[in-house]
Each structure stands twice: as C-alpha cells, then as structure tokens.
Amino acid sequence: MTEYLSQQIAGIAIKALLYEVSLSPKPGLVDRFSNGAHQDMDFFTFIDSIQSLAPFFNEYVLIGYRHNDVLPSLFSKLRTVGIQAEKSMLAATNQVNTHKGANFSFAVLLGATGFYLQNHQLPLTEKDSKNILMIVTEMTKDLIQKDFTDLHQKRVLSYGEKLYLEKKITGIRGEVSKGFPTLSTLLLPFLRRPTKESKNITLLRGLILLMSTVEDGNILHRGGFDAWRQVQKESQQLFEMELDADDFLKTLQDYDKKMTQKNLSPGGAADLLGLGLYFAFLENIF
C-alpha cells in the first residue's frame, strides 16, 4: 500500500467526522449553530479533535495493511495505538471527550479496511463493506468476554461497565464485536436508497433512524434507562412521520431544544452516523 492510499482512506474517515459535526440541527448534539446539551465543547472543539486524530487514522490503515497474523492480534495492535490517539485528542481539546467512542470504532474499521485492501482495491462495493465488517467481527470476537470479565472484583467501574452489570447493555463494544449490525442492516441500506433530498436532510433522517434503535451510552449516562427508551420512542415517531424537508428541520430545531433542556445527547448515534458516512464515501453512495 502506498502512503498516498493510506492517507486517502484516512482522509475519508476524517471527512466522515467533519460531515457528522457539520450536520445541523442535531437534537442535543454539537453542530454548526448549537452546542446542544454540551457546555464544555462547541463546533470548533470538534474540529481541533478531528485534526488531532488524523495521523493516527492513517496509522490504523497501515497497521491493518501490514498485518500478517491472526485477526485478534490485529485488534490488540490497533487498541494500543488507539490509546495514544485518545491522549492526543484530549490534549487538543483541553481534556474534553469529543471522539473517544468514534476513535475506538474507527481504529477497528480502518484497521480492517487496511487488512482487506491487501487483496482488494477501491472503490468498494456493498459486498466489500460487508466483508470488512466480517473482519471486524473476527478481530473482536473476544472483546466482551475480555473487557467485562471479573467486573465484580473491580473497585472502580466505568459507566459502561456498570450498565453491563445492571442491564447487560454492551453499548459500542457489543456493536463492534458483532460487526456493526446497526450499520449493515439499518443505516447503510437507508443511505443506499435513491433520494432527491439534500445530503443534510438525508443524513439527519439517518441520525433520527439511529436514535430510534441504538443502545446509546451517552443518553443512558446522562438520563438513565427511562430517558433512553423515551428518546427511542420519540425518534421512531419522528422518523415515521416522513415530514417534508422544511417541517422536518423545524421539528428537529424544537427537538434540539427539548433534548438540551433535558441534558440529553445521542452521542452514540452520532458516532454510528460518522461510521456509516465512512462506508458511504468508500462506496461512492453520494
């Protein structure tokens, strides 16, 4: 793999994150016009964060391309570099967590993409995307067992660990270890459908679709189980209304105010939208 190709693929991931933060209006989330439910970050914090991750995204691709061992060991390599990327992100944002989940997911996806491109070329097809997600499943098949073993013996638990113990909710780890089924069975089929709507409207509808389904750790952390279920219900109703573009944007603006007042932010859904955009760009969907 040439350095140009690895940078090209990493650049597609960076573009996906830039698209995601630029979409507006997003309920409870940072966008061009609002900080949503976040008091410690804004649109420019996200730009700083994305720039800090760029060299690591390139490294993830190269690690995958150069890997010639079993796939679980590839995941271990990527996770080690991912920890360094997270430190770089926090340094760039004054310790604000903007992309911890997205960095973790993109480390896996970019590594799997690099590995796949040992024997394939761009642009990707729908079948190629499915094959890359199968590689992710093989890479991370022991992730849940390793990360959630012996939690009862730990003194201090993360919120994700507490959710697993109390509700068996696996969050992003579960999504990754299953090969991102929310992407393959929900978001990507939605994005592949022909539409005359703008990218902004199409992707905002995709976000609402994700909010109706995803085990969103951000909402669970901020509002608890009942708040998460309520957001899922409201999002499903909004998606199924099939409003025209103007009414949809106005409804989103109102919903943004409601989510912000409740201090709720669907960051998990936003991360998955960014991952979906990555595949959409690789497949030339837009």
Describe the structure.
There is one protein chain. With 286 residues, the protein is mainly α. It has a single domain (3-282), classed as Triphosphoribosyl-dephospho-CoA protein (Orthogonal Bundle), CATH 1.10.4200.10. Helices cover 71% and strands 0% of the residues. It is built from 13 helices and no strands. It has helices at 3-22, 43-66, 71-92, 100-116, 126-139, 143-148, 159-167, 171-177, 181-192, 199-211, 217-241, 245-261, 267-282. Helix 2 runs parallel beside helix 4. The mean pLDDT is 94. Belongs to the CitG/MdcB family. Keywords: ATP-binding, Nucleotide-binding, Transferase. It catalyses: 3'-dephospho-CoA + ATP = 2'-(5''-triphospho-alpha-D-ribosyl)-3'-dephospho-CoA + adenine.
What's the short story on this structure?
InterPro entries: CitG, TriPribosyl-deP-CoA_syn_CitG. The protein has 13 helices and no strands.
Task: Based on the model shown, name its key terms.
Triphosphoribosyl-dephospho-CoA protein, ATP-binding, mainly alpha, nucleotide-binding, CitG, about 290 residues, Probable 2-(5''-triphosphoribosyl)-3'-dephosphocoenzyme-A synthase
CATH fold annotation: Triphosphoribosyl-dephospho-CoA protein
Helix content: over 70%
Give the CATH architecture: Orthogonal Bundle
Query: Shape from CA axes?
Result: globular
How many domains make up the coordinates? 1
Oligomeric state of the chains?
single chain
Strand content: under 5%
